[in-house]
Amino acid sequence: MKNLDDLPSLIVQPLVAQLEDSTFYDSVLAGISWSHHVILLDKEPHLGRRLWYMHHAIEFGIGRNVLAMQIDSGLFERQVTAKKITNFSRTLPPAQSDFANYLLKDPYIFDFVQAKEKADERNIEEQLASQVTKFLLELGKGFAFVARQMHFQIGDGDFYADLVFYHVKLKCYIIVELKAREFRPGDASQLNFYVNVANDFLKSADDNETIGLLLCKGKNELVAEYSLKGFSNALGVSDYQISKAIPEELKSELPQIEEIEEEFREQ
Question: Is 80 exceeded by the pLDDT of residue 197?
Answer without folding.
Answer: yes
